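Homework-ish question, so no full write-ups if that breaks the rules, but can someone show me the predicted structure for this set?
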Amino acid sequence: MNQTQSIPLNDPFGKATNGKLGMWLFIIVDGLSFAGLLIAGGALRAGGAEWPVAGEILNIPLTAFNTFLLICTSFTMVMALNAIQKGDQSGLSKFLIYTMLGGILFLGIQAWEYHHFILNNFVLTTSIYASVFYVTTCFHGLHVLSGVIYIACILRAANLGVYSADNWNNVEILGLFWHFVDLVWILVFTIIYLI
Amino acid sequence: MDDHKSIYIKNAVWLAILTLLEVGVAFLSISRMGQIVLLFAFAATKMMMVAMIYMHLRYETKVLQWILFIPIPAGILFTVALMYDIPFSWVG
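A: Not a homework solution, just the prediction itself:
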């Protein structure tokens, strides 16, 4: 008797492909890594570490702009998926390029911010607050960098005509990762910069 | 303009508005607890908007949605437990 025929394949997950489920699983694990960093920061703060008030050291208007930029890249990423679902290959490439440029600009602004802080002697070893700030934002920055490289790989395949109205699963998986990077920044911005 | 595109644009606009409100709340002279509650409420709303609309989580099955949401209260529980432990960290 062939028992595999009676097992519904991926039924609880609907039409989600294995690749998509794998990315969701990665997102859960990665989200817990960020939670670990943010909870550790919260515990150090509650434990009596010296903490500046919002805007005393960090540049909130600039980072709010960076947050807005990341939101815009989430929009361009979802538009890239929307384009290829309709078979628009040039639209896919165009929106992927916009998203990549947005990610590079985000990293550039973050690097400029770090440079400014280092010039003002606000470095990793300055205080517990500085350590929490640099570790958390660098960890996020590495995710943005990974995302930019990931987009470049998908963009290359898109330019070779790999994706079409019937084949866009990899674009959707890339989108999940990029939106997660945006989603987690919302929490990092609130906890590290605003509270 | 197709329906999806219009939803995506509206979502981006609302996310930008909520970000501006968040920055405003950070400089508002209200009680510290009120400020924290408001900031977390705005952040949670924005995260839900990204997950539900941009990540298309609202189109996924209930099972997948539950798998993703269950770690959140667990994380909050661990945080609260850790915070209660901090006043006694000097012991031993």
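Now go work out the reasoning yourself. Hint: Chain B has one domain: 3-88.
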